[in-house]
Amino acid sequence: MSALGERVDVVPVADTHERIHYLDNLRALAMFAGVLFHASLAYSPLMHPFWVTADRGQWVGVDIAVWFLHLFRMPLFFVIAGFFAAWQVARRGVGGLLRNRTARVLLPLIVFWPLVSVSIDWLTGRAALTIEQASPVLEFMRDNPLLRLPPSLAHLWFLYYLMWFYLLVWIATTAEWKVDAGRVLAWPVLVLIGVAPLFLIPALFSVSAPTPAPESFLPQLWALVYYGLFFAFGYGLHARPQWVIRSRPFAPGLLLASLVAYLAFLWILGNRSADSLFHVGAAALQACVSVWMTLWCLQAGSAWLSARVGWLRYLSDASYWTYLVHLPVLFAIQYPLMDLELAWPIKWAISVGVTLVVCLGSYHVAVRTTLIGRLLNGRR
Amino acid sequence: MWSESSLAMVKLLVVKDWQVYQKQLAGYLAGLVLALGLIGSGSEWTFNAGALLLLVLLVSTGFFAIGQIVLNERKERTLPFVMSLPVTPTEFYSAKLLAGVLVYLVPFLLVVLTTTFLVLYTALPDGLLVYALLIYVFMLTSHCVALSAAMAIESEGWNIVVQMALMTALSPFIIWIGSLQPIAANLLTDHIVWSPIALGVLAGELLVVAVALGWTQWHHARKTSFL
Asked: What is the pLDDT of residues B139-195, one digit of tens each?
């Protein structure tokens, strides 16, 4: 394994036939980070008024860790998705990309959204009636039994936005817009690192901090711009994959700068005001952490995860299924835990552990070698 | 009845028009994404701007399609070239009519389906659906009338007059149906009510579509020569 910042003379090129393993591995880890993220929200003081499984046990440290992760986990997904979209276009053309993504992204979204939605609604409705130590959201539902919220995409919003971005790839190609996202990567690394966050500030300024999940079926402009820029960066990265290695010497600095920016963001968050300067500051700091940590993850991944590791490959294969089903599974575990007299770290460990066992177990038994596995991952 | 070779020729001509139109469709879809993004942004002004952009896009894409498929070809004197091809006037004009309708139906159905989906599956009041569909069908009607006029009238100036008149009629139509009590009463509720008056307006619109397209096809089907 090479260390971050180490000089690498032979750089990998994104050839149209070879997969780049570190991106697969990063995607797998980011998917599993999603399980940790959603499990932790139950113990977050910041999310307590809004999250259905909010527990009595809370710790401010959860917020500190969770929102840091939140700022770059989804951007990283979109960078990777953009990269593989460009890879598909290089192999099969835009038509091939659309056909492939319709089968791998749109179809699973159409199949799994009703299942996820109905199971979450059923679990939550039942919890509202039976849980004694109910969260504020469950109490609100109990007090307003006739209230019907509009359907939401839940955590599957990621797939929904991916489809919009694939459509935009088709639009840009068909309309012959000469958008060479890769050209941006020809800029000096330090300039790109400094300038890139500026493009995200308007989008982040228009929403609350930390950024909410764009779960509505109405596409949100801020999310299209914010995540779209990460997708475009990933798309451009396919033409210049060596950029990640070229930028590695900046990795320690990026990590340090991200931590400092995040601490400043936390301070701003703790001293909320209606002042627009507060919003600009929060947006700018989130933009910095998003960009810098996403780049750092790519650099770290290219240094430490570039080999084809068996267990990571397995997790990578299982990650899509885990992503799709983990939220209802997690809720099914966390609702009964709410009434138990246990310390929150134990509840957290149980919910994460059991969710992963159920997701990975069901993947191994009912998905990997079946039609569902073919639907999600194609022919293995 | 049409022969197999006639149908193949019409299909070929329609595909040709569709391919020429694709670039414009791409631009239209980009506008559609922007419009939906604006509608979803949450504030009143962005919602109105997004909804207006949807309507403007639908109007302009229709007129662009007519311009591209019928008027431009006339201006560029494509007809002498077409006359040298093994294609009859009936095949040619039927293909133009079909292409003019089909290329509009793609963005039209996209907008209609997207709107229906969003009205039903977001916080927007479901009662909005009847109102929105009547407006959209009015725009389809306008397109069919403009297409019919473009195929019948050679003068570019008169075609512009027809298109401007149809465009101008949209705003009074929106205000008029918004003022009809059975439609207005359910606009901000979650009840989708197809009242007799709403069904009457819809039937009227579809009748105009049928007459415009039917007359154009009948008129051109009688032609034995291009000139």
From this structure: 999 999 999 999 888 888 898 899 899 989 999 999 999 999 999 998 888 889 999
Instruction: Say what the ipTM of the complex is.
Output: 0.75
Nearest residue in chain A measured CA to CA from B114: A218
Amino acid occupying residue B125: P
H helices present in chain A, as ranges: 21-40, 60-101, 107-130, 136-143, 157-174, 181-184, 189-205, 221-237, 242-246, 251-270, 276-304, 310-337, 344-362, 371-377
Provide the chain A residues 211-230 that lie in CB contact (below 8 A) with chain B. 216-222, 224
pTM of the model: 0.85
Q: Of the candidates B26, B34, B40, which has its C-beta nearest A216's C-beta?
A: B40
Q: What is the CA radius of gyration of chain A?
A: 21
Residues of chain A found within 8 Å of residue B122, distances taken between Cβ atoms: 150-151, 216-218
CB-CB under 8 Å, A168 with B30: yes
Give the least confident one: A73-87, A246-260, B87-101, B169-183.
B87-101
Give the closest-approach CA distance of A120 to chain B in angstroms: 17
Between CA A19 and CA A84 the distance in angstroms is 9
Whether A218 and B27 lie within 8 Å, measured CB to CB: no
